[in-house]
Design a protein that fits this description.
Radius of gyration: 25 Å
Number of helices: 16
Largest sheet: 8 strands, parallel
CATH class of the largest domain: Alpha Beta
CATH architecture of the largest domain: Alpha-Beta Barrel
Structural class: alpha/beta
Bound molecules: calcium ion
Strand content: 15-25%
CATH superfamily of the largest domain: Glycosidases
Strand order of the largest sheet: 12-11-10-9-5-4-3-13
């Protein structure tokens, strides 16, 4: 296997698609087969590019080859003019998503629900009629798979709607459904993890609801509940979905006043993991463990309770680094995640549907958005994007503002609907939209597309190991990603990531690291993005290098 080093100079302005493939220059004694030849400008050829449905690279599972995209169905695209996004609307936009390089979708809850967001479910076996029919959903699934895009669903195990027929019957203590929920004859008198009320009086008794009185928690100490939710799980897997995002995964079972990460929750998820893998060994769960640290997250993953967990800490770190233009705020957290969590089995992101929009958190500064995206999409783990992030959707405060209609064009209602949108489109929809940004090579969208496609083309970014590179400049984010052939551990591909987080060119920097998995030698370096040609790099005995400056200047992104 040839050693290859590629440099990814991600400058906040230069997106030169220069490509070239480097050949290692032997340090001392050239191998006889390597004839000294005039060195052409090295070109960065794709290494282990994804084609079709991601299957996994270098022994990693398929999800390590996947860039996921979270969709709030109500807000993505309305196909029939009723102002509500729907399954057929998503199907119409699958070519857009495929073109962007997306290989996985997470659909927020698609089940019948009295709420606009859908996290209070009234029937786990059907779809919300606002979004279309089951046939529409099946068509979306088929068309996604045809384009190499897997689909996972939001699975709300912790609670149902108070309008669910199970709960309506459960109110009667004599009903067999009574024990499907959590009751007390008297008020136990304690509050929830956020100090909130969790016990609510009803019909002379009290029921437990960690989030909201209209979302009563299911009782997973009742085997009938476990059996039913396993049946739900099998129903959707048999239909062809590829897995689930597990809502509130850390709150499933309470050990008295321990209402998060309880021993019982860990035990339940271990059993659930074995169950869904038994139905489909390739299916996946990604847990929402908001607020947990890396050590707690690791317990779920290494003990086969979840395949992945969202990394809220990496998310916060990317935003801090982008906002403060200080790379160490990201690299410190990234190396902690990389060290503590099972290899690459976590899901970093920037923001999700519960958080203020990326653009809003970064002060409507498109360059900071580009910097954050550049860090996320070159880093270890399985990246998740939130719909609209790629065009700079804005919004914060009330949840509805974080979940506004997607901005497709400068037409009425941002091209989301021909009717009246369920929620008004955001500000700046006439500028920040897919149509406008598609034709602008310096747009946020163009950068996202380039980054996702580079990740799809290069194994080092998807499954490479990671070394933090000291850049001797706080504004320069630098990591080294190296992928290895599983058979003999030889280096397949190496990518040096450089992201200028500041609004000015960076000169006079110097890169070094005390250790990496690169073998000693001198390597040619070819730009994937950014300016070239780049200086050769000399790797010493333990993969270390020092005082390296591939190019004189790392430019700032163009506005
Ligand atoms: Ca509709
Ligand atoms: Ca619970």
């Amino acid at each position: 296997m040839k050693k290859k080093t590629l440099i990814l100079a991600l400058a906040l302005a230069f997106l030169l698609p220069a490509c070239a493939s480097p050949i290692p220059a032997p340090t001392s004694t050239p191998a006889p087969t390597l004839t000294p030849s005039p060195t052409p400008l090295p070109s960065a050829v794709p290494v282990q590019a994804i084609t079709g449905m991601p299957k996994g690279t270098d022994g990693y599972p398929w999800w390590n080859d996947t860039t996921f995209y979270e969709i709030f169905v109500r807000s993505f695209n309305d196909s029939n003019g009723d102002g509500i996004g729907d399954f057929n609307g998503i199907t119409q936009k699958l070519d857009y998503l495929q073109n962007l390089g997306i290989t996985g979708l997470w659909l927020m809850p698609i089940y019948p629900s009295p709420s606009y967001h859908g996290y209070d479910v009234t029937d786990y076996y059907s779809v919300n009629s606002d979004y279309g029919t089951m046939d529409d959903f099946k068509n979306l699934l088929t068309e996604s798979h045809k384009r190499g895009i897997r689909v996972i669903l939001d699975m709300v195990l912790n609670h149902t709607s108070s309008q669910h027929p199970w709960f309506k019957q459960a109110i009667d203590p004599k009903s067999p459904y009574h024990d499907w929920y959590i009751w007390s004859a008297t008020d136990p008198g304690y509050n929830g993890p956020w100090g909130e009320q969790v016990w609510y009086p009803l019909n002379g008794r009290y029921y437990y609801a960690i989030f909201w009185d209209q979302m009563p928690d299911l009782n997973y100490r009742n085997p009938a509940v476990i059996a039913e939710m396993e049946k739900v799980t099998k129903f959707w897997l048999d239909l062809g979905v590829d897995g689930f995002r597990l809502d509130a995964a850390k709150h499933l079972i309470e050990d008295r006043t321990i209402q998060a990460d309880s021993k019982s929750t860990h035990e339940f998820l271990q059993q659930y993991f074995a169950y869904y893998k038994g139905v489909n060994p390739n299916s996946i769960t990604i847990g929402e463990l908001s607020g947990d640290n890396q050590i707690t997250m690791a317990e779920y993953i290494q003990n086969k309770q979840l395949d992945l967990a969202f990394d809220f800490n990496d998310a916060a770190a990317y935003l801090s680094a982008a906002n403060s233009q200080n790379a160490s705020l990201a690299t410190g957290q990234l190396s902690f995640s990389y060290k503590i969590l099972p290899p690459l089995q976590y899901a970093p992101f920037l923001t999700n549907h519960d958080q203020d929009r990326l653009m809003t958190q970064l002060g409507d500064n498109a360059n900071k958005v580009k910097a954050a995206a550049s860090m996320l999409l070159t880093s270890p783990g399985v990246p998740f994007l939130y719909y609209g992030e790629e065009v700079g959707l804005e919004g914060g405060g009330a949840d509805e503002n974080k979940r506004r209609p997607m901005q497709w064009s400068a037409e009425a209602n941002a091209g989301f609907t021909t009717g009246t949108p369920w929620e008004p489109v955001g500000p700046d929809a006439n500028i920040l939209n897919v149509a406008a940004e598609s034709s602008d090579p310096n747009s946020i969208l163009s950068l996202y597309k380039t980054l996702i496609q580079i990740r799809n083309q290069h194994a080092a970014l998807r499954v490479g190991d990671m070394s933090i590179v000291n850049a001797n400049n706080p504004g320069l984010f630098s990591i080294l990603r190296v992928s290895h052939a599983p058979s003999n551990n030889s280096v397949e591909e190496a990518i040096l990531v450089l992201v200028n987080l500041t609004n000015a060119p960076i000169r006079g920097y110097s890169l070094g690291t005390s250790k990496s998995s690169l073998k000693p030698g001198v390597y040619h370096v070819a730009p994937i993005m950014g300016t070239g040609p780049a200086a050769d790099i000399t790797i010493a005995s333990v993969g270390d290098f020092a005082l390296y400056q591939p190019v004189n200047e790392i430019p700032a992104y163009k506005k």
